[in-house]
Design brief:
heterodimer; A: alpha+beta; four-stranded mixed β-sheet; B: Alpha-Beta Plaits; five-stranded mixed β-sheet; 19 helices
Chain lengths: ~160, ~600
């Protein structure tokens, strides 16, 4: 898993320490600590994992093991407008794969990554419970139903002037 | 104690409640096969992740098969370990494991010593029904250990050794499903991790996912180069274990045969690391005595305890984890490096050989020694003091490759002068030995009297952390001993917290000391093997006429002719070293 290099600010390190402390630095709470850290940073870069490991006195390899095991955790920053394409069964049979390909083609990034300007990221998810609208795409909290390949560029257009 | 009675393969057995089916079967001499289970009894390490599923058995009335290593016995249970259903399932499990394994057995470093290969033979795998995607990871070459994780079967034994036993914490299972593998954090190379190269992961790996860097080819090239004078040194623990590779009982001493084999292999001078171990005692013992006497005389600048510095895994460990305590370990180099430094100066000058035409090879029970001899501070104009280090296992392979019938070799003696040694040097190979050797010499130098009894039984044993007091003519000297880096960490944390009050501490990274080193014949966690090797070492010590390092005539001569006295300027240049804060270095690398 690749990662972005960054230097954490003192205030960010302080925040991480507070998160660890709120779980009493207990080893069994590692997953909760990582949830807290990801909520704060948006993702879990190596530097964040190193601070967590140091604070909780857990080998950083073990922390990395947990981060890579659970698909919820990510080491890559998500875009300001995270795009999630449902590839659950209903969406899939209604052409979600083609919709996904169209997003990848236009944005020129693979699944799990973010455009170089940090605006969009693409992830797949499994069923949002709106199968009647299949195929479904979410951008942030907004849901789009019955998306076609032609409709992809219209969705992206909505965010053209936003930042 | 509550007992439960059950039947395994129609035979009744009674075991303590809580016993697993796997152990109950062992009581009946039924060895259920497994690839991941590991039990290092005397080290208090039992590894039963229930991951490989080879050990599955059929339990009457249970719908699915049970992993015997992780299923407790119940009253009235009926277990079958080799029903048709079990045999088929076990073979399928193995076929699935093999389906993501490279088929390069013919040229694999572990061929002939591979648990996976043995299992395929045992379970009668004859074809490869599952063909599919294969893992393709980049092999990781460090100075001492090679990680080829395409061969990893996720038994995770290495992870247990690295984390639970050694508390180094470099290796962890990462990712999930097909991509799951054991690796350092962020999939860094070992060379960019806190790996100490202790090699205990290599010692327990069932396949060739973790192996040592093999320098045998370089040694053969040097031996066949007529311009090179090739000098070999053998560590004390090697002679107590090498025989096992030739089918001898653990604890068989093969010193004479080993010397004879090395001579037949073509080494020009067959010397002994034990010579350098005696030299280590002269330097380290003098330093120890000096620091202790200054401390006893009230010198506040002197820091105690003094820590031994022979073990390269341990040196790496404190450089990574205790950078604030770098002034405590003895500055004495390890015997391997002292040997190299003296061979390429004193001995080379005597022989009128340029150091560039001399190749120094070491035979070590160790993986970390391969790294140690590449450290920059142990070289002169890019010419290393020790050129190549090969392990006990590699030496055995080399001897077999050279068509030498080890059994029938005559006993021969080491060459002079660097082959002369005392009993004090031999015991370096086992936990407690270095500090006992140092005590023998320090006592006599301090008191000016001969030791009433040479053997210090209080310093011997197998407990992970031990302590003892030695009476130096009215002054009590407190000594601590730890083997295994997890135990070392406990002891050092106590020292740091002011809870332990020792004058001197000996630490060895591996279980039992060098006799359980990462480069030794595999002991499969059987500590009786380690104990037999330790016994052999103490026997060799007992059989020696000279048993104190300062009595070694060739060491005395070396000081007279070349070094002056212990701790002299020349001795410091050649025989001492300094340590680095590797934690800081790590940050810079990132």
């Amino acid at each position: 898993m690749t990662s972005i290099k960054l230097k954490l600010k003192d205030s960010e390190v302080q925040k991480l320490k507070e998160i660890c402390k709120s779980f009493n630095n207990e080893h069994g709470e590692l997953i909760n600590v990582l949830h807290g850290a990801q909520e704060y940073f948006g993702y879990l870069p190596a530097e964040v994992q190193e601070v967590v490991a140091e604070e909780m006195n857990i080998p950083v390899a073990k922390v990395y093991g947990v981060v890579t095991f659970y698909s919820f955790f990510t080491m890559l920053p998500r875009g300001r407008f995270p795009i999630s394409i449902c590839t659950g069964t209903a969406c899939y049979v209604r052409g979600a794969d083609k919709v996904l390909d169209e997003f990848k083609r236009i944005l020129k990034v693979p699944v799990g990554e973010t455009t170089s300007d940090g605006k969009f990221s693409i992830t797949c998810l499994r069923c949002v419970g709106a199968c009647g609208l299949a195929p479904v795409v979410m951008v942030g909290d907004k849901t789009y139903g019955r998306v076609t390949t032609d409709g992809v560029k219209d969705i992206l257009k909505e965010y053209e002037n936003e930042d | 104690m509550e007992l439960v009675k059950l039947k395994i393969d129609n035979r009744t057995v009674e075991v303590e409640k809580g016993t697993t089916i796997y152990h109950a079967a062992q009581k009946l001499n039924i060895e259920i096969p497994t690839l991941c289970y590991m039990n290092l009894k005397d080290l208090n390490i039992e590894h039963k992740p229930g991951g490989c599923r080879i050990c599955v058995v059929e339990v009457e009335g249970r719908r699915n098969l049970a992993p015997s290593c992780a299923t407790e016995c119940m009253e009235g249970m009926e277990v079958k370990t080799h029903s048709l259903r079990v045999l088929n399932a076990r073979r399928t499990v193995l076929e699935l494991i093999i389906s993501d394994h490279p088929f390069d057995c013919l040229v694999c470093a572990k061929s002939g010593h591979c648990d996976l290969q043995d299992m395929a033979v045992k379970l009668g795998v004859r074809d490869l029904p599952f063909q599919g995607e294969k893992s393709t990871y980049k092999p990781d070459f460090s100075p001492a250990i090679i990680r080829d994780v395409d061969k990893c079967i996720m038994c995770r034994r290495c992870e247990t050794m690295c984390n639970d036993f050694q508390t180094v914490g470099v290796l962890s299972g990462i990712h999930r499903g097909f991509e799951a593998v054991v690796a350092p954090a962020f999939e860094r190379d070992l060379d960019h991790s806190e790996c100490t190269y202790c090699g205990q992961c290599v010692a327990v790996c069932p396949t060739a996912a973790l192996t040592e860097v093999d320098h045998t080819k370089n040694v053969i090239a040097a031996l066949s180069d007529p311009r090179k004078t090739v000098v070999v040194q053998t560590a004390p623990a090697v002679r107590a274990a090498l025989g096992e590779e030739f089918g001898m009982e653990p604890g068989t001493l093969v010193t004479g045969k080993m010397v004879s084999a090395l001579r037949q292999l073509g080494f020009d001078f067959v010397f002994d690391t034990d010579f350098a171990a005696d030299l280590t005692i002269m330097e380290e013992g003098t330093e120890m005595l000096d620091r202790i006497s200054r401390h006893l005389n009230g010198d506040k600048d002197v820091k105690l305890p003094i820590l031994t510095s022979c073990c390269p895994g341990w040196v790496n460990f404190f450089e990574y984890y205790y950078p604030d305590m770098l002034d405590i370990p003895s500055t004495a180099r390890s015997p391997q490096q002292m040997f190299g430094a003296i061979a390429k100066t004193y001995f080379a000058e005597k022989q009128k050989i340029d150091r560039k035409d001399m190749v120094v090879v070491s035979i070590m029970p160790c993986v970390a020694k391969k790294y140690e001899c590449t450290r920059e501070e142990f070289a002169e104009d890019n010419n290393p003091d020790v050129d190549f280090s090969i392990s006990t296992r590699e030496l055995a392979k080399f001897i077999k490759q050279a068509n030498i019938d080890f059994d029938s070799l005559p006993d021969e003696d080491f060459d002079k002068p660097m082959g002369e040694s005392t009993g004090a040097a031999v015991i370096f190979g086992t936990t407690g030995g270095v500090i006992e050797a140092a005590t023998r010499t320090a006592y006599e130098l301090h008191t000016g009297k001969a030791l009433p009894k040479v053997d210090f039984d209080a310093l011997r044993g197998f407990e992970g952390i031990r302590s003892a007091s030695v009476d130096f003519n009215g002054t009590e000297i407190k000594i601590g001993i730890a083997h295994g880096l997890g135990n070392a960490r406990k002891l050092l944390d106590d020292v740091k917290a002011g809870k332990a009050d020792f004058h001197a501490i000996e630490i060895m990274a591996c279980p039992g000391g060098c006799i359980g080193g990462g480069g030794q014949p595999l002991h499969h966690g059987d500590s009786s093997v380690l104990k037999a090797r330790a016994k052999a070492i103490y026997e060799e010590d007992k059989g020696k006429t000279l048993r104190k390092s300062h009595e070694n005539p060739d060491i005395i001569k070396l000081y007279e002719e070349y070094l002056g006295k212990p701790g002299s300027e020349k001795a410091h240049k050649l025989l001492h070293t300094h340590y680095f804060d590797k934690k800081a270095k790590q940050v810079l690398l990132d």
